[in-house]
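Quiz preparation item.
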């Protein structure tokens, strides 16, 4: 795992994930990337992946083989960033993007790839605007607002130190003990495991609340004592 991690660095982008491949022959880079995906399949499931291959010169067969292997793992290859004109042309022939919108410094986030059974959390110090979707295989803590049109999906708890107007889904893999906490919980929709709330209207007098599944199996919200 240490060797594959050294060869492949994963970061989050607005459009998915970016895998930056280290200096090695292509077969080693490809194997290292696939090994990371196989180590954490739930993290990469359904992901849109861009790869930065540096100066690596790749032919059509190289990218077709990788695209097929990623597709078998339910990962979509959508972009190839390269310093090589040959590789760039190859990617374009296959209909892949060769330019990506890298996030501004304050928007960059390193996605943790957790070890099994680890309690991991993604901390975001920002407001999530409409069109933003965050997915994480652990807890998510947001110091900011979740605007209408934004979505947060976490396998663990979701804690928002701000207002929620978008969609929050905690316990996305079926964890019915997960909770959603916010200073103003007026979300478009709340979900915990398979339970879904009705559309919530903005409160006239916002108060901190925590949403959870009660003893009757229903999703409910109650006062969150944050003091």
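Solution:
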């Amino acid at each position: 795992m240490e060797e594959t991690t050294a060869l492949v660095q994963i970061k989050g982008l607005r459009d998915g994930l970016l895998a930056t491949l280290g200096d090695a022959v292509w077969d080693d880079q490809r194997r290292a990337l696939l090994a990371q995906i196989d180590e954490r399949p739930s993290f990469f499931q359904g992901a849109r992946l861009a790869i930065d291959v540096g100066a690596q010169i790749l032919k059509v067969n190289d990218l077709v083989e990788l695209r097929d292997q990623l597709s078998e793992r339910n990962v979509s290859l959508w972009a190839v960033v390269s310093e090589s004109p040959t590789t760039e042309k190859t990617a374009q022939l296959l209909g892949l993007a060769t330019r990506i919108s890298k996030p501004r410094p304050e928007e960059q986030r390193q996605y943790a790839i957790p070890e099994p059974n680890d309690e991991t959390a993604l901390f975001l110090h920002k407001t999530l605007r409409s069109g933003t979707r965050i997915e994480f295989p652990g807890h998510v803590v947001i110091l900011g607002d979740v605007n209408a049109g934004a979505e947060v999906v976490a396998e663990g708890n979701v804690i928002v130190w701000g207002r929620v107007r978008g969609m929050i889904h905690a316990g996305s893999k079926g964890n019915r003990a997960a909770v959603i906490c916010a200073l103003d919980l007026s979300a478009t929709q709340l979900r915990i495991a398979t339970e879904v709330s009705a559309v919530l209207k903005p409160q006239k007098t916002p108060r901190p609340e925590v949403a959870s599944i009660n003893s009757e199996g229903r999703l409910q919200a109650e006062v969150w004592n944050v003091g």
